[in-house]
Amino acid sequence: MRPRAGPISAAHPILRCAGKSLDLGAPQVMGVLNVTPDSFSDGGDHASAAAAIAHGVRLAGEGAALIDVGGESTRPGAPPVAVEEQLRRVVPVIEALRAATSAIISVDTSEPAVMRAAARAGAGLINDVRALRAPGALEAARDSGCAVCLMHMQGEPRTMQDAPTYTDVLAEVRDFLARRVAWARAAGVAADQLLVDPGFGFGKNLAHNLTLLRGLAEITRGDTPVLVGLSRKSLIGTLTGRSGAERIHGSVALAVLAVARGARIVRAHDVAATVDALKVTAAVIGGE
Ligand code: PT1
User: N or C: at which end does the chain have fewer Cβ atoms within 10 angstroms?
Assistant: First the structure.
C-alpha cells in the first residue's frame, strides 16, 4: 500500500492521547465512571475506590475505548468539589485502571492540579466541561500530552438550568467551540489532540437540546472530532417519563442519532448496549 501523504484526512481521524492513539474511523464509546458519594457508597474511601475500579474494568470489558473518571458531579444543581477531594477520589482509580485495562483513561475535571496529577497517574484525555477556562488549565492540559475535550456550557452546573437563553443555540455553540479550538491551537495544543462537545444539558432546555441534536451535522462538519454526552440525561426523562437506569433505551436511541449526524465518541453509562448499537449503526453509515 502506498503511504498516505500529507495530513490525516478528517474523514478518518486518529486522536493522540499521551502514549496511546484512538482510531475514530469507527464510532467509539466512552464509559462513565463517577467517583462521587452519590454514585458509589461514599466517594474517596477505600471501599468506594475498589467499587469504582471494578466498575471501570467492567466498562472496558464491555467495549468502552475510553473510561471517563470524574470526582466532581457536573449534573444540574451539583455543587463544586474541592481540588484535594477530587485528587483523593480520582488518582487511585486512574492508577489502578491504567494497570488493569488497555482502555484510554479520561479525567473529567476543570482543575489544573487534577489534570496534572491525572496525567502523571496515566490518563490520556482531559475532559473539561469548562473548556479550559480555569486559570492555568490551558497550560496544564497542553503540558500533559493528553488529548483534550472542549465542551460548551452556559453558566455553571449549580445554576445553569435556571433560565438558559440563546438567540441561535446551534450557531452560538458552534462558534464558541471554534473559538476555543483556535485558542487552544494557538497555545500549542496539536490539532490531533482536540475534541469538541456541544454539552447537552449544560445550560440548555429541552428545545435547545433537540435543536442542537437535529443540527449536529453543523458541528461535526468542522475539522475537530465531536464527542457527545446524552446518556440518561433529563431530556430523556422529560420525553419518556423514566428515571435513572430506565433511560437506557432513550439513551441508546440518541447515541445512534448523534453518530448518524457525525459524532465520533459517545459518552455512556450503558456501555454494552451502546457498543452494540453503534456497531450496527457504523455498518450502515460506513457503507454510505
Ligand atoms: C458531557 C458530560 C460530561 N456530561 C462531556 N463530559 C456530564 N464531555 C459529565 C441532565 O440534564 O455531556 N460531555 N461530563 C454529566 N452532566 C449532566 C448534565 C448530567 C445534564 C445530567 C444532565 O440530566
Answer: N
Tell me: the pLDDT tens digits for 195-215?
999 999 999 999 999 999 999
CA dist list (Å): 143 to 12, 14, 195, 199, 221: 26, 20, 17, 25, 28
User: What pLDDT was estimated at residue 151?
Assistant: 98
Mean pLDDT for the chain? Answer: 93
Number of structural domains the chain divides into: 1
Domain with 188 in it: 14-286
Q: Is residue 5 part of a domain?
A: no
- Residue 233 appears among annotated catalytic residues: yes
Q: Average pLDDT, stretch 10-23?
A: 88
Tell me, yes or no, whether 78 lies in a domain.
Answer: yes
pLDDT at 2: 45
Is 179 an annotated catalytic residue?
no
| From 142, 233, 247, 264, the catalytic residue | 233
Residue 1 maps to a domain? no
Bridge partners (DSSP) listed for residue 32:
68
Q: Which residue has the higher pLDDT, 38 or 131?
A: 131
Give the closest residue (by CA) to ligand 1 atom 6: 129
| CATH number of domain containing 52 | 3.20.20.20
How many helices (H) and strands (E) the chain has is answered by: 10, 10
